[in-house]
Amino acid sequence: LFMGLQVNSGFPFLAIGPTGTGKSMFVNEVLLARIFNTTLVSGVALGAVLAIPGFALAAFSDRLFRVPLQIADETRLLFVLATVAFFLTVASTAFQLVSQARNRLDCHNTVSLLHRITRVAVTVGVFVWISPSLVAAGWALVAAALVEFVGHVVCWRKIGPDLTISPSRVVFPAFRGTGWVALSTLGAFLFFGADTLLVNRLLGPEETTRYALALQWGIFLRMFASAISGTFHPATLRLSAGGDAERLCEHIQRAIKFTGYTTAIGAAILAAFAVPFLELWLGQEYRDLATLVTILVAPAGVIFAVVPMYSIALAANRVRIPALATVGFGLSSVVAIVGFAGELEMGLVAVAAVVTLAIFLYNIAFTPLYTASILKVNSWWLYAGIAKVAVASLLFFGVAKGAESLVSPESWWTLIVTGAVLGGLFFAMTLAAGLNAHDRAALKNWLAAR
User: Fold this and answer.
1) Cβ contacts of residue 439 below 8 Å, gap of 6+?
2) What residues contact residue 49 under an 8 Å CB cut-off, 6+ apart?
3) Of 128, 274, 285, 447, whose CB has the highest number of CB atoms within 10 Å?
4) What is the mean pLDDT of residues 236-263?
5) 366: left (phi > 0), else alpha (psi -120 to 50), else beta?
């Protein structure tokens, strides 16, 4: 739920983005000051309002979830700590935007790296030197969020000292669409959080654990795709603000390729080697989770290739239809899970299939069509890029599955080396056949800039 909320927390920044002057939104310092202050106020307000249901989840967690009695108190505290971490993350949104506005993604990426290192280090440290517990995970979330908040504030003071906090520069009309963003947030929860809750209620905590073990790899690929897509986000906003439709279409096509191909490489390797990976990671008794892992990760390249399109609707302030569609598809997913997993008792495979199908339909059947309607272009040029990613995904998976049957890795070393070789091979195939000369030149320039 909190992950879905954070995705939408920068809405006012996007809602007042297009200037109508034909210039980059980042060149106009007055506009940037308004964006900064509006996003700061909205972030703090959103975090404070949504902390209420977070604390309510903590208070009533024993009634909402099927949790073993011995960890009931830890579960409550985990929700409290997760709510605090969420507030810190959303409150830092405005400071994050300064790095993007000044084209200092090095600052943004450094803070993101420190955030991940802190979360992992605190979790491992507490588990090793104190004791494993849910509370340790909660404290890791808070520590990481605090490092992220402080890091972005430091970057703001270094690269944007002229951007001062001024309530007079808050653009309150930018909040007119926040109701639709809140509705979209509900849809995000139905897509990415309701499945775990329903598994817990319908099938119990043990099956929830098994489902979560497989689901985390789908989440990882979604975050990976979002990170790749995020590198295209500032340019998408600039082109949208400048009204350069032709260059924007070319930019989105390139973003679809880069996001889809890179995600497809990891998805194909993980899905093909699911059985040996699970045996090495968890033991022989968990090899049956390979089916779940395959369902959740194999289509990731195609499904998440469309992530760069999300910013088009936001930049154009056209969020009403996507919000309604998100809720509609999310509710359909919830009903289907209750029916197949609850009434028909078809288990975790049915849940994974329903979730994957719902996201697939939203991303493939709805998002390209709506994006094309905003840009006033034929949707074929979007589907052409997605189709190329789909062909590459099938090819990558077929080659990886063949390699898995030949190598049959029985050690981590063999698995890692085989995965690295396949990843390099797939990357070379992508450069040679998946990208055109302009794409390769853009990739070269992007790598050189870093």
Assistant:
1) 254, 257, 258
2) none
3) 274
4) 84
5) alpha
Nearest Cα to Cα of residue 287 among 297, 298, 274, 296: 274
**What letter would DSSP give residue 16?**
T
For the chain, the residue count is 450
CA–CA distance, 186 with 184 (Å, rounded to integer): 5
Structure tokens at 311: 């910013």
> Could you read off the pLDDT of 46-82 as tens digits, one per residue?
778 778 877 887 888 777 777 777 777 888 888 888 8
Structure tokens of 45?
Answer: 């307000």
- For 65, phi then psi, to 5°, come to -125, 150
Residues 426, 258, 103, 175, Cα dihedral to 10°? -140
DSSP state of 131: -
Burial of 135 (0-12, 13-18, 19+ CB in 10 A): buried
Would you say 126 and 64 are in contact if contact means Cβ atoms under 8 Å apart? no
Q: Tokens for 108? A: 């943004």
Separation of alpha carbons 424 and 347, rounded Å: 37
Cα–Cα distance for residue pair 365/350, rounded to 1 Å: 21
CA–CA distances in Å: residue 51 to residues 13, 28, 83, 89:
21, 34, 6, 12
Q: How far apart are the first and last CA of the chain?
A: 33
Q: pTM of the prediction? A: 0.78
